Amino acid sequence: MASDKNDFSKGSMLGNILRLAGPMTLAQLINLLYNIIDRMYIGHLPNESTLALTGLGLTFPIIGMISAFCQLFSTGGAPLFSIARGERNEERAEKLMGTTITMLVITGVVLVIVAMLFKRSLLYAFGASDETYPFADQYLSIYLLGTVFVMITMGMNSFINAQGFAKKGMLTVMIGAVLNILLDPLFIFVFDMGVQGAAWATVISQGVSAVWVLKTLTSPKAVIPLRKKSLGVRPQLLKEILPLGTSGFVMGFTSSAVQVVCNASLQQFGGDIYVGIMTVINSIREVISMPATGVTHATQPILGFNYGAKEYGRVQQGIKIMSIICIVYTTLIWGVLLMIPETFIGIFNSDPQLISLGVPAMTVYYFGFFMMSLQMSGQSTYTGLGRAKNAIFFSIFRKLIIVVPLTLILPHVGGLGVMGVFLAEPISNFIGGGACYITMLCTVWRDLNRKKAEA
Questions:
Q1: Which of 163, 248, 322, 339 would bridge 299 by S-S if both were Cys, CB 3.0 to 4.6 A apart?
Q2: For residue 62, what are the CA distances in angstroms to 32, 119, 124, 322, 400?
């Protein structure tokens, strides 16, 4: 039977995780190229590179908020889908998938309308100046046209991975990313479209990726195919999807909120140059976090499947493996960042002033980066096992309760200025990451021990 395929309750847990994590990590890394390549090209435009890059960075909070709504449905629907597969309830799994994609499309259309109406006010509120606004406006106006493509690609690719087709999930983003790499220099330099060219390249690439996702999920080869009869909004399922998905939504939305507060504070204490530095630092972070993110995302459906199959010992084993891999990786990459910060910054911008000011800012921002792995591991455990309240709380705790207040307060303490903004991140990693993981051990782990004893 189709449900017997890709059974995560069998075989080595490490093998299952690595089998999904490899392609998923590569897929997510490739997915970053949609925007990373844009930043690399724009950051090296003649004469106006720094202002153009800064303007592009101002659009990140809005783009992040769009992604947050995508996470609201995908991180809610996909884990429930995995649990239903583990329970061999294919009808429920299919309905969860149909409800998710319906909500993604409806929400995408609404977001385009709202963002178009308020983009000017939002960009200035997020730290734009008269010099950087034109670049931000040019990029965002075109990017928004591909919002529904983004929702389908990002939201539904998780259902491809949840069925065990990690390589096909990788192809989803690889196809679009390769197309984006080819179109960027053509539109930006050959057609001399600048920032607008980068946006058009991204939209076209996302559209092609969305088509691939739909083709894959509707294929007869899918373990649980997406069919017309499964489309539509089912209120009862939506009541289950939203609480669990709120964790991913809060994580994405609060990340955008943090970017807004950071940009506003940096504009106040350092001007456009430091907003540009934060754009570069965030770009680097997205790249270096991908391996850890790939492992945690790959582990989620495996934890959910085994939990649904009542294989509680395997769930604990999966949590251990995920945590160890993430801690080791983030510690190693932190060391690399400390040794060659100029190299990482130079990927996105070659302005001597930005590099000289960016190195000390980057050193502070990434201090103790390994603690972030505890947040990621704990958060993924909660999400994979359907513990929505815990996941939501720790999303809010680290970003809104710790980072935002510190970003507003620290610049005024002891003359820290812009360095106070960058210092808020490592403090939140130590407090938030530690609290999230320790709480997970005291709650989830104990509950799993109890269930093993009762089985």
A1: 322
A2: 16, 9, 12, 31, 17
